[in-house]
Write a sequence for this structure.
């Protein structure tokens, strides 16, 4: 019975979505960060997900990617390469020589949508665990009563 | 005359193993719902169980049931709406499949419980 690997798969999804929620939180927190140069400006962080197949032995002794657990992992965190927002604010103390300041390239609407998607997937992983738990418990009661 | 418990339980013990396997695969689909390029998979439940069912129907009371192996019945899901990043795992579809699979599991368990209750009654002579 493969109950343990189901917990592992759902757990990996919850871990990955937590990382995604963390990046959303940092991006939203830094949405209005200002810097004195384009390089120093905050660039939105985006996680890159990848599937991790863990092959497992079955009764026949066959091993292969076909029978693998499809867990998910965060392969990388990349910075958004969208142009940062340059504004002319000569009175700002950190403005550069020409009077420009550089705002972050965070798109708040995109981040909110990302956050909803992440929490939705997290929720479905939690539901998988709940349901698997009840399947396992009813299997333990097999033959009783 | 002996009671063959294997035969009495019939195909439901295989259905149970199959449903646990299937929930593992669908849990993988659900976990990778946001992974670019992930190809969702599922078992061809009908053909997998049909082979086992014919084997169970033809066996004599002395036969032992063979070990179940469903690995050759793993198929790729055909998406309803192809997505731009190549991911074929759709949250709604996978959640529905997972829920109905869990329901089927409970059904198989109920059948097994009823059968076991019947066997117990036969043994106790009530």
């Amino acid at each position: 019975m493969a109950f343990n690997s189901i917990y592992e798969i759902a757990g990996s999804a919850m871990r990955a979505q937590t990382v995604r929620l963390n990046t959303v939180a940092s991006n939203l927190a830094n949405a209005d960060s200002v810097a004195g140069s384009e390089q120093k400006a905050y660039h939105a962080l985006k996680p890159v997900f990848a599937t991790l197949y863990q092959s497992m032995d079955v009764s026949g002794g066959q091993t292969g990617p076909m029978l693998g657990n499809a867990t998910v992992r965060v392969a990388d965190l990349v910075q958004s390469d969208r142009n940062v927002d340059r504004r002319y604010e000569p009175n700002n103390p950190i403005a550069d020589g020409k009077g420009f300041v550089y705002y972050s390239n965070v798109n708040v609407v995109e981040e909110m949508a990302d956050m909803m998607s992440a929490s939705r997937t997290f929720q479905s992983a939690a539901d998988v665990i709940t349901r698997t738990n009840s399947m396992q418990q009813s299997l333990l009661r097999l033959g009783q009563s | 005359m002996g009671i063959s418990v294997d035969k009495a339980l019939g195909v439901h013990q295989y259905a149970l193993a199959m449903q646990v396997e299937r929930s593992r695969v669908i849990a993988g689909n659900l976990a990778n719902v946001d992974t670019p390029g992930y190809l969702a998979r599922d078992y061809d439940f009908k053909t997998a169980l049909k082979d086992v069912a014919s084997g169970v129907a033809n066996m004599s009371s002395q036969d032992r049931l063979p070990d179940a192996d469903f690995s050759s019945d793993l198929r790729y899901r055909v998406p309803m709406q192809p997505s731009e990043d190549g991911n074929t795992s759709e949250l709604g579809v996978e959640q529905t499949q997972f829920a109905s699979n869990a329901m089927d599991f409970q059904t198989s368990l109920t059948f097994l419980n009823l059968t076991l209750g019947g066997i117990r009654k036969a043994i106790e002579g009530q």
Observations:
- Residues 108-140 of chain A form the longest helix (33 residues).
- The helical segments of chain A are 3-29, 108-140.
- Residues 32 and 119 of chain A are 24 Å apart (CA to CA).
- The first strand of chain A starts at residue 34 and ends at 35.
